[in-house]
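We modelled the chain as a single entity of 89 amino acids. Its sequence is:
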Amino acid sequence: MASERPTCETCPYWYSEGDHSIGECRRHAPTYVPATMIASANSSWWETERDESCGDHPDFEEYLLARARKRFKEAAEEAWEANSGKTSS
């Protein structure tokens, strides 16, 4: 179960040379970057930091489900405790 938030660093689509904190997300095709934004027109992958996160990470859905289960369990326990001493009339 994914208990920690999935990050770029743990994603199979993320590429970084060596021990860098910035890498490239290669989940989708490179994006065209017009010459007005950089010195010359180019295509590149999105640069991300290793601790960023997105919904394309393969473990993201499992992470969200684990969080939802935990919150549901906590809410159910609180409701049980709140109603444990009460009787219905």
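As a brief sanity check on the tokenised model: The radius of gyration is 22 Å. The chain has a mean pLDDT of 85.
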